[in-house]
């Protein structure tokens, strides 16, 4: 069993590493062919943090374990809000912008409600998965359209849009085309290999401890694949970019539902674990509603996620983990 744990940890490390190299290679190729850094930042780089979850979901679904994929998507969303944002707020309270209040929070809440509705009958159909996947592409194109319009308005008013600037700044510098293609190929090879070993070792561990594939997806895999979001959020608060820290989490959660959860329905439609529909999806919705409430409460005249609110979120995460293994 120790061997399986070692395989899981090593494969998780390589999964995150290869996702980073894939994004680096793809971004560099895009830059070499003249694609705007803003477009690269909002597409390739934005999807990079969810690449581990997407690969795990696809691999698990192809191997006949869609509950692992579903658990990974739901667990990652709970982890992102309760653990990642909780820890981030404990380190440094976050100021919530009006744009987040008006646009991003209502959007993630609506998408989370849709996910709960889709899973509630304990059957995830191909059509439902396809609808979520189509909505993902609609979201990406909508995001690009809105950002391009904002950039144009900012240019006309001779102002700087910090979110656009940060999206462009996150794009790595281009390297030569041969090296770019090399890193892209390395990512494309190592990503599925590491995801395969991760899913296999997680399945063996689940069998040994008598827990379901769903639980493994909700816990070990979800926490592991959320590490890039934790690193990005901590880096954002160090640079005093509160909007970016919260935006990373909300964006990742949107991707997890539309681009990760959808793969389970598209690749392996059918009946799902009843607990995912009646316990975990509602908890994901409750945590999202809690985030909504915490961000809307004013502290000293401003919308903030304080250290106390971070402690509340972290307590919820610990309580949820205890519930899963009780």
How would you summarize this macromolecular structure in one to three sentences?
This protein has 326 residues and is mainly alpha-helical.
Shape: globular
Low-confidence stretches: none
First-residue to last-residue Cα separation: 22 Å
Order of helices and strands: HHHHEHEHHHHHHEHEEH
The share of residues in helices is over 70%
* Rg from Cα: 19 Å
Q: How much is the average pLDDT?
A: 82
Described by strand count, sense and barrel closure, the largest sheet is: 3 strands, antiparallel
Strand order of the largest sheet: 1-5-4
Count of helical stretches = 13
Q: Structural class, judged by helices and strands?
A: mainly alpha
Subcellular location: Membrane
Protein name: Sodium:calcium antiporter
Keywords: Membrane, Transmembrane, Transmembrane helix
InterPro entries: K/Na/Ca-exchanger (IPR004481), NaCa_Exmemb (IPR004837), NCX_ion-bd_dom_sf (IPR044880)
Could you walk me through the main structural features you see in this protein, from its secondary elements to its overall organization?
The chain is mainly alpha-helical and 326 residues long. It contains 13 helices and 5 strands. The chain has helices at 2-32, 37-48, 51-62, 66-91, 98-119, 126-156, 162-169, 177-209, 213-225, 227-238, 242-267, 274-296, 307-324, and strands at 94-95, 123-124, 270-271, 298-299, 302-305. The strands form 2 sheets. It has a 3-stranded antiparallel beta sheet. A two-stranded antiparallel sheet has the order 2-3. Helix 3 (51-62) packs parallel to helix 11 and helix 4 crosses helix 9. The mean pLDDT is 82.
């Amino acid at each position: 069993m120790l061997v399986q744990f070692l395989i899981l940890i090593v494969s998780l490390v390589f999964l995150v590493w290869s996702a980073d190299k894939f994004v680096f290679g793809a971004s560099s190729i895009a830059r070499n062919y003249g694609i705007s850094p803003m477009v690269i930042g909002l597409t390739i780089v934005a999807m990079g943090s969810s690449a581990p979850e997407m690969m795990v979901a696809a691999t698990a679904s192809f191997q006949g374990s869609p509950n692992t994929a579903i658990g990974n998507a739901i667990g990652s969303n709970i982890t992102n809000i309760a653990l990642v944002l909780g820890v981030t707020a404990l380190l440094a309270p976050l100021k919530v912008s009006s744009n987040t209040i008006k646009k991003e929070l209502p959007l993630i809440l609506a998408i989370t409600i849709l996910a709960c509705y889709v899973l509630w009958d304990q059957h995830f159909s191909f059509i439902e998965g396809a609808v979520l996947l189509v909505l993902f592409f609609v979201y990406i194109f909508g995001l690009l359209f809105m950002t391009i319009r904002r950039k144009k308005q900012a240019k006309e008013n001779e102002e700087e849009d910090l979110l656009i600037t940060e999206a462009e700044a996150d794009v790595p510098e281009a390297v030569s085309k041969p090296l770019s293609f090399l890193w892209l190929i390395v990512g494309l090879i190592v990503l599925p290999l590491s995801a395969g070993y991760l899913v296999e070792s997680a399945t063996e561990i689940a069998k040994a401890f008598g827990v379901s594939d769903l639980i493994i997806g909700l816990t070990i895999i979800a926490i592991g694949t959320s590490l890039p979001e934790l690193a990005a959020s901590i880096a954002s608060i160090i640079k005093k970019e509160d909007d970016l820290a919260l935006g990373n989490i909300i964006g990742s959660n949107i991707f997890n539902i539309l681009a990760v959860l959808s793969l389970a329905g598209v690749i392996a439609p059918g009946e799902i674990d009843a607990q995912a529909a009646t316990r975990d999806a509602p908890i994901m919705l409750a945590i999202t509603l809690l985030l909504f409430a915490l961000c809307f409460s004013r502290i000293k005249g401003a919308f903030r996620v304080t250290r106390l609110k971070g402690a509340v979120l972290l307590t919820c995460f610990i309580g949820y983990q205890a519930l899963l293994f009780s």
